[in-house]
Design a protein that fits this description.
This protein has helices at residues 2-5, 37-53, 68-75, 89-93, 95-98, 134-143, 158-170, 182-191, 201-209, 260-274, 277-285, 295-312, and strands at residues 11-12, 26-30, 57-61, 83-88, 110-126, 149-152, 175-178, 196-200, 213-218, 247-255, 289-290. It has 319 residues and is an alpha/beta fold. It has 2 domains: 2-118 and 248-312, D-Maltodextrin-Binding Protein, domain 2 (3-Layer(aba) Sandwich); 120-241, Periplasmic binding protein-like II (D-Maltodextrin-Binding Protein, domain 2), CATH 3.40.190. Strands 1, 2, 3, 4, 5, 6, 7, 8, 9, 10 and 11 form an 11-stranded mixed β-sheet that branches. The longest helix has 18 residues, at 295-312.
Length: 319
């Protein structure tokens, strides 16, 4: 399925339909390469948004700089509603805390429109590791400080900060090994070059079900329907993890300067797309949770998480 979705560059996500009032299609900018989880989620959403807007929606991949290049593309776009950002939360809440040269302020230079979905990560381990669950892992890490290594898709990525928060809350010392993407990190977890890693449930579940890695816990508040036998971190009984979550979200942003009327119309279209039956089905299959909300929901959530990550990532910088 990923291969079918992994079309290069800007790809038409809906069949020809009537265009926007200004005669232009809608460009949905994604900060990750074609074929990855965010791109897959965006392409599925683009079809539903196209129905809601009765317009062509084109997915335009602009990967790089922790997905912030896509944000900058939208910051510089004309505020006419024809360019939107399918934004992953890390680019809005983590990047401002670790990137010295971010050329814009996500809190001030973009216009939030509406949320799309939440996703959660799962912690998996090499099958030969001596621990089976969260309590075992924490006990092992405390007995061997700094010995356990974990992979991520890069400094400041969602699975990096998820593990940084886990280590802080569980009061353990772990060794971070950043990779250029989740795929090579998972390859080395399977091969035993690193011990553990977080990955999005939709991706990690296939490796778990095939026996290539073993699950430790999911970062959602409740067990995931696709993996009912895998406990949450909250079930571990560890005090520091009683409220722990590991995941992120997607939301739609527009260039600053769109009119309130445009924002309202776009937000209504996003909410209609989120409720689309086919999108709900496909997202559920991939482990995503639809998030139907308001513009203010996005503003509040982003602000809260920026503050949270500022504390967790203190001292971490990425030029």
């Amino acid at each position: 399925m990923l291969a079918a979705l992994a079309l290069c560059g800007a790809t038409l996500a809906t069949p020809p339909a009537s265009a926007q009032p200004n005669g232009q299609p809608v460009r949905l900018v994604v900060g990750y390469a074609a074929g990855g989880p965010a791109d897959q989620a965006a392409r599925l959403f683009a079809v539903a948004l196209g129905k809601a807007l009765n317009a062509n929606v084109i997915v335009d991949n602009k990967p790089g700089a922790n997905a912030t290049l896509a944000g900058y593309e939208v910051v510089r776009a004309k505020p006419d509603g024809a360019t939107l950002w399918f934004a992953a939360s890390a680019a809005l809440t983590v990047a401002p805390n670790i990137m010295k040269s971010l050329p814009y302020d996500p809190a001030k230079d973009l216009a939030p429109v509406a949320p799309v979905a939440r996703y959660y990560n799962m912690l998996v381990a090499n099958v030969k590791e001596p621990f089976k669950g969260t309590q075992d892992l924490v006990a092992y890490a405390k007995a061997h400080p700094g010995k356990l290594s974990y992979g991520s898709s890069g400094v400041g990525s969602s699975n990096h900060v998820a593990m940084a928060l886990f280590a802080r809350q569980a009061q353990v010392e772990l060794n971070h090994i950043p990779y250029k993407g989740n795929a090579p990190a998972m390859t080395d977890t399977i091969g035993g070059q690193i011990d553990v890693m977080f990955d999005i449930i939709s991706t990690a579940s296939g490796y778990v079900q095939s026996g290539k890695v073993k699950p430790i816990a999911v970062g959602s508040p409740k067990r995931n329907a696709s993996l009912p036998g895998v406990p949450t971190f909250r079930e571990s009984g560890i005090a520091g993890l009683k409220d722990y979550e590991a995941g992120g979200w997607y939301a739609i942003y527009a260039p600053k300067g769109v009119t309130p009327e445009q924002t309202q119309k776009l937000a209504a279209a996003v909410r209609q797309a989120v409720e689309d039956a086919e999108l709900r089905k496909r997202y559920a299959e991939l482990g995503y949770e639809q998030w139907s909300g308001t513009t203010q929901d996005v503003v509040n959530t982003a602000a809260r998480e920026r503050t949270q990550w500022a504390s967790v990532l203190k001292g971490v910088t990425l030029d």
